[in-house]
UniProtKB/TrEMBL annotation:
SUPFAM superfamilies found in the cross-reference section: Alkaline phosphatase-like
Keywords: Hydrolase
Protein's name in the database: Sulfatase
Upper lineage: Archaea, Methanobacteriati, Methanobacteriota, Stenosarchaea group, Halobacteria
Family membership noted in the UniProt record: Belongs to the sulfatase family.
Organism: Natrialba swarupiae
């Protein structure tokens, strides 16, 4: 490892999953791809939750949502517990100057996060009109970050959390949720490769073409920042992490515990330390990022962290104390409605336990009110989901063949069901005690009325 602590840039984006050229998708993202070529890419990196705030909370705390308390959206009366420590606090204690650029979305109270400096942060609900999010657009955030790097107005070492609004859907004048093609442009739907887990229909292609416009803007933002980093002479002494929080905002992705909902990009570049040009297919959870970063920076990892470091896996070729994961867990509790789900994924199998009367596939509000959502409302928006789902990922990688009741899979079903329960029990998952009330439950129960 380097003799001195590196600077750290953590670049994170909305609703992208692994929809990037470097992950084999038919889209041009040259700047993120170049970052991957110069660093390490993780092919099977999954978020703890298929939604924004809970996933981001896990990234920043190294703890799963039902442990850190952020089981719903930060603008929806959910907060991480008061005693939770987050990444900038760990780094501040280690001598880092901490900076926040753009979006964070793990707390309505930015002061709670204790960044030393907050630049251009717009902590707004991501479903409102696109005009509200000018401050968090990749172009604008990248411009502020570039000025910061080129101006040298920082103390070494520094940590910068850089959050882009892209590629979150936003409400348009017609009431539908799209990708603001008037601002970003769009690709011709006929030129877009369909998603493997959705039927090839006009609405899906239309929305994918529009999302491409946002993707190009996001990639340009990454390129602007990396160019400024190089021009400032900081490239060799900076650890750059690019990640996303969950799958794209399409049916069977965002808001579901299928792979398309939990998948998240993870690219890390640290010249001279992380082996360049490597692709790793280890099972990883985004709670693993924080302990890995702490180990790379020679900072003690607290015992309370749910994640495990993979630093030894990616540094000098000697795996050291690295223990590969045999399983990762996913969960969802609240979004814009109650959707309690827990899941376990191994190399071959995915087992999902649903704890409520739920539609076949949950569609978050922004997906439901989209062209893509309209294509599947009749088939996926009806309340018919089974309480248990089991998928053999070798035979059904798109998780479209539930084998939970097939006799030859009963041993697998029982084993994964037991492991999921044991994990929930060991981590004091409140869902085991019954339905989880929302953060504004007191307000719901408050009912001033006069007795008759």
């Amino acid at each position: 490892m380097n003799d001195s602590q590196p600077n750290v840039l953590l670049i994170h984006a909305h609703d992208i999953g692994q929809y990037l050229g470097c992950y084999g998708v038919d889209i041009e993202t040259p700047h993120v791809d170049a970052l991957a070529d110069a660093g390490a890419l993780f092919e099977r990196h999954f978020a703890t939750a298929p939604q924004c705030s809970p996933s981001r909370g896990s990234l920043m705390t190294g703890r799963v949502p039902h442990v850190n308390g952020l089981m719903g959206l930060a603008h929806g009366d959910w907060e991480i517990h008061e005693d939770e420590r987050i990444l900038p606090q760990y780094l501040s204690d280690a001598g880092y100057e901490t900076h926040l650029f753009g979006l964070q979305h793990i707390s309505q109270d930015t002061d709670r996060l204790e960044y030393d400096h907050v630049h251009s942060e717009g902590n707004l609900y991501p479903g409102v009109s696109p005009a509200v999010h000018q401050v968090n657009r990749a172009r604008n955030v990248a411009s502020v970050v570039s000025s910061f790097l080129e101006g040298g107005a920082y103390e070494d070492p520094f940590f910068a959390s850089i959050g882009f609004f892209e590629c979150h859907r936003a409400e348009e004048e017609n009431g539908r949720f799209g990708f603001d093609a008037d601002y970003y442009g769009a690709d011709d739907p006929e030129d877009v490769r369909p998603l493997p887990y959705l039927p090839d229909r006009r609405g899906h292609r239309h929305d994918l073409g529009e999302m491409h416009g946002m993707m190009y803007a996001l990639d340009d933002g990454v390129g602007t920042i990396l160019e400024a980093l190089a021009d400032s002479g900081l490239e060799k002494e900076t650890l750059v992490i690019f990640t996303t929080e969950h799958g794209i905002a399409f049916p069977r992705a965002k808001g579901t515990c299928y792979d398309a909902g939990l998948e998240a990009a993870l690219v890390m570049r640290y010249p001279g330390v992380i082996e360049a040009g490597e692709r790793y297919d280890d099972l990883l959870s985004n709670v693993d990022v924080l302990p890995t970063l702490l180990e790379l920076l020679d900072i003690d990892i607290p015992d309370v962290i749910d994640g495990r470091s993979f630093a030894d896996r990616i540094t000098d070729g000697d795996d050291g104390d690295y223990e590969p994961r045999e399983r990762v867990f996913g969960e969802m509790t609240w979004h814009d409605m109650y959707n309690p789900v827990r899941a376990i994924r191994t190399d071959r199998y995915k087992y999902i336990r649903n704890f409520w009367h739920l539609p076949t596939v949950y569609l978050p509000a922004d997906v439901f009110a989209s062209e893509s959502g309209r294509e599947v409302r009749e088939t996926d928006g009806t309340p018919a989901r089974q309480y248990e789902e089991l998928y053999d990922l070798r035979d059904a990688p798109q998780e479209d063949d539930n084998v939970v009741y097939e006799p030859r899979y009963q041993d697998v079903r029982q084993d994964l069901s037991r492991e999921l329960y044991e994990w929930m029990d060991e981590t004091d998952d409140p869902l085991l005690d019954g339905p989880v009330v929302p953060g504004d439950y007191d307000e719901i129960q408050s009912w001033p009325h006069e007795s008759a």
